[in-house]
Amino acid sequence: MTFFQRAKAASRFLFGNAYAGIRNTTRRAHRYTRNLGPEHREFDTGDREKMSAVMLDLRRNNPTVKAISRLRRADVVGPGIRPQAATGDEDLDKRLEELWEEYAQQPEVTGTMTVAEVQKQVAEMPLWYGDGGLMLARGGQVQVIEGLRIGEPGNAYGISTPPDPSRVQGVEFAKAGRPVAYHIGTREDGTLKELQRVPVRNFAFHQKLMRPGQLRGVSELASVINLLQDLDEYKSVEMLAAKIAASMAIAVTREDAHDFELANRSTTDGDERLQTFEPGSFNYLNPGEDIKVISTGGRPNSQAIMYIDHCLREIGSAIGIPLEFLIQNIGGSSFSASQGVVLQYQQTVEEEQRALEPVLNKWWKWKVVEWLKSGAAEAPTGSRPFRVRWRAPAFRWVNKAAQVQADRFYVQLGAMSLDDVTAQFGHEASEVMERKAKNISAAKEIAAKYDLEDWRELFNDVQTTAGVDMMALRDSDAQ
């Protein structure tokens, strides 16, 4: 140690660290004794598989995690995130959108999912696996790849050994850390088999980066996975306490009937001990035995609901979902507070929708190239066939009447288009106008059939208004 290093160490001993946050304590020592490396070292293949297994189990059995899954699917994707071509050529835009609508019915290799359903699967992947994506297969269809299918071949014990230093947990990368290929296989009996190398151009990878240069994603629920399990155990204990408090069993000691009691209490497995009490039951004890009242110690806890709500808020805050949405109880406060909660959650939904756009853009470009090569569409000179705008379903307000008025005002100003408004319901403006035109045409036929003076009497059409200067109108009449 040099003189300056010794002097620095002595000053720290005398005056302490400049930042109190880095001072060691008994409980915090483990945080300062590790050199934080890249995520593939901090979160290796074995850890990834264990966490995914826990998360999938919670998804099946935990109502909170099930609610998170439902909200991610219903609010982020909903009826589907639809493309609006922006090539600069109206005919090409219309043709590409028609081709996509036809393709959207069965875009996946198994033929069991629509585009919207594929989008929902991809949107959920960061929750359970940390990452995943779409393999752009031959024939123009995609294959949904879960994060656990990306990796290295495992041995009989499921331990993966990367054969190449340029590969990390199934991701092959260049010197600069840029991914060049993904190694994807099938998972059987806990091991990854039949791996194939998929170039990055044929795979749309989806993850949420925690730090630059990260090659694999980490589950979004990683920071609250212990809290989720603790909350499950806590609710189980409170439920047990409630059952015990609600139960009443009586034990009777009988003298001079030792042989009878042994025979009466014998079980098929030979266990003669009285181990459980059923509510409302009478149990007979052996001579010399006695019973003490089993007390729950003031349980169930009257503050349990408040504590559970606090834990759920903490879990929801980690992924941007307010408690009111997790437990479907948004009307417990004032109207303005409810609107604030909705707007807070709206930010999360819109961020999730933006996170999907890189995957969707790659998917769109891949399909457009295929259509152009096959002659299904032709791109005029000067057009930009790969430009696209994704119209996600908008998040509706609590006050629908106010939302309609706001949408109408924005359309009048030109800040929004009819496509933006109809996208909130999963439709295009052209579709809505065509349906309205058919309704008007049918209304005219029905009005003529029944001798009505005006077809508008059949339904309320959209009213239009105009502002007029009455003085100018009077002057024009006088002329």
Can you lay out the helices and strands and say which pair or pack?
Blueprint: H1 3-15, H2 29-32, H3 39-42, H4 45-61, H5 63-77, E1 82-85, H6 90-103, H7 115-128, E2 131-136, E3 142-146, E4 167-168, E5 171-173, E6 179-188, E7 191-199, E8 203-207, H8 225-246, E9 250-253, H9 258-265, E10 282-285, H10 304-319, H11 323-326, H12 335-374, E11 388-391, H13 400-413, H14 418-423, H15 429-449, H16 470-478
Major β-sheet, in short? 4 strands, antiparallel
Query: What string, H for helix and E for strand, traces the elements in order?
Result: HHHHHEHHEEEEEEEHEHEHHHEHHHH
Report the end-to-end length measured between terminal Cα atoms: 103 Å
- The largest beta-sheet arranges its strands as 4-5-6-7
Total domain modules:
3
On the 0 to 100 scale, the average pLDDT is 81
